[in-house]
């Protein structure tokens, strides 16, 4: 039987060896990631809870040897827990110089009024006027002659500092109405009284409109609030959603942050927030890490 001579070039060998090494590297990385075990504690107190729960459940499904616990309450000192090592991640919108901060999303902030209110568009200065009692009657904004009723938000809610920072608004509001924590309570109040005004997360406001709740989202500085305008910064009422960790986080914490930054993680965030993309201008403090191009999750 005649023998067949097979000629293999040096280039072919190099490519074959390179492909084999690359495949082995991927397998080692996958094995290392799959071998992750342990528990994470994520602490927070703001409106991010539902989406963080979804992220935690999705990560646990991908990594059966891990467990993620949440400590979420208005009394939780999330940043302090990370500093003391009791928690690995704090979810907030304010960086801390002692911790590493990674921005995972933007939260648009909607100024809402009752649907019967004829006012549809305001400037940033007028928003500041409404919430600092310099504008006290809707007729000053070409609305009906009715006294403005402001629903304040609790200072413990992440929305409050984000709202104030985006407007440069630092004045204390004078109002006889007790501060309200939940978006749902605000929606109930505003939809029930023609002269009321407040602010909530944009996603919650858009969902309320879809559900037929009697509110209207005001246009600010002639810019409609939406994912595109929040993302590019034209709609200025927004706050960063941050995850704070130790400056040298453990492998499990790093793995979870990688998942949050992945395509799958960002898609989960989109249910409540505006995902961060490289085109977003960096308007958060310089020690906050901006996301690179999202990488596929493992």
Q: What is the strand content?
A: 15-25%
* Basic shape: elongated
The averaged pLDDT comes out at 83
Radius of gyration: 24 Å
What name goes with the CATH superfamily of the largest domain? Periplasmic binding protein-like II
Low-pLDDT segments, ≥5 res: 1-32, 278-287, 290-298
Characteristics:
D-Maltodextrin-Binding Protein, domain 2, 2 domains, ten-stranded mixed sheet, two-stranded parallel ribbon, 10 helices, 298 residues
Secondary structure elements and pairings:
Blueprint: H1 10-34, E1 38-44, H2 49-62, E2 66-72, H3 78-83, E3 89-92, E4 100-114, E5 121-122, H4 124-131, E6 149-150, H5 159-167, H6 183-192, E7 196-201, H7 202-210, E8 215-217, E9 219-220, H8 227-232, E10 238-245, H9 251-261, H10 263-269, E11 274-275, E12 288-289
Walk me through this protein's architecture.
This protein is an alpha/beta fold. The chain has two domains: 118 residues, Periplasmic binding protein-like II (D-Maltodextrin-Binding Protein, domain 2), CATH 3.40.190.10; 126 residues, D-Maltodextrin-Binding Protein, domain 2 (3-Layer(aba) Sandwich), CATH 3.40.190.10. It is 35% helix and 20% strand. It is built from ten helices and twelve strands. Strands 1, 2, 3, 4, 6, 7, 8, 10, 11 and 12 form a ten-stranded mixed beta sheet that branches. The chain has a two-stranded parallel sheet with strand order 5-9. Helix 2 links the parallel strand 1 and strand 2. The N and C termini lie far apart (50 Å). The N terminus and C terminus are likely disordered.
């Amino acid at each position: 039987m005649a023998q067949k001579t097979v000629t293999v070039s040096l280039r072919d060998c190099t490519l074959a060896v390179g492909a084999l090494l690359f495949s082995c590297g991927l397998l080692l990385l996958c094995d290392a990631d799959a071998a992750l075990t342990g528990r994470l504690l994520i602490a927070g107190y703001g409106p991010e809870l539902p989406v963080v729960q979804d992220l935690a459940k999705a990560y646990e499904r991908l990594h059966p040897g891990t467990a993620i616990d949440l400590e979420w309450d208005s009394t939780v000192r999330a940043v302090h827990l990370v500093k003391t090592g009791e928690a690995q991640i704090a979810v907030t919108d304010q960086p801390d110089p002692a911790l590493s901060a990674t921005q995972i999303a933007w939260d648009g902030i909607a100024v809402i009024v009752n649907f019967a209110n004829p006012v549809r568009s305001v400037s940033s200065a007028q928003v500041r006027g409404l919430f600092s009692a310099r504008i006290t009657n809707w007729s000053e904004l070409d609305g009906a002659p009715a006294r403005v009723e402001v629903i304040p938000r609790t200072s413990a809610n992440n929305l409050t500092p984000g709202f104030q920072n985006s407007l440069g608004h630092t004045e204390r509001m004078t109002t006889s109405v007790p501060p309200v924590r939940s978006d749902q309570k605000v929606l109930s109040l505003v939809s029930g009284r023609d002269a009321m005004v407040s602010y909530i997360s944009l996603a919650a406001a858009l969902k309320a409109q879809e559900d037929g709740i009697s509110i209207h989202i005001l246009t600010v500085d002639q810019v409609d609030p939406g994912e595109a305008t929040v993302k590019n910064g034209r709609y200025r009422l927004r706050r960063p959603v941050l995850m704070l960790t130790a400056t040298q986080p453990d492998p499990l914490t790093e793995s979870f942050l990688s998942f949050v930054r992945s395509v799958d993680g960002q898609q989960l965030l989109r249910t409540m927030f505006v995902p961060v993309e490289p085109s977003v201008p960096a308007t958060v403090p310089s020690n906050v890490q901006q996301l690179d191009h999202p990488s596929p999750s493992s």
